Amino acid sequence: MDGLNYIAAAIAIFGAALGAAYGNGQVISKTIESMTRQPEMSGQLRTTMFIGVALIEAVPILGVVIALLLVFK
Fold this sequence. Notes:
The chain has helices at 2-37, 42-71. The protein is mostly helical.
């Protein structure tokens, strides 16, 4: 049963990283698209993008914490 904890931890990290990568790609691509449509808003869009990316990056950190809890249980 000890080996299953490692597999569960790997799946948790993989899922979190995959979700964050997809989310970051969507946020950045939509921000660039918006900047090309309204260049005068690029400063505000960039700030909002960085806040969104920071919130999305919190997900893999939580995934690592959950994985560590599964491994060192």
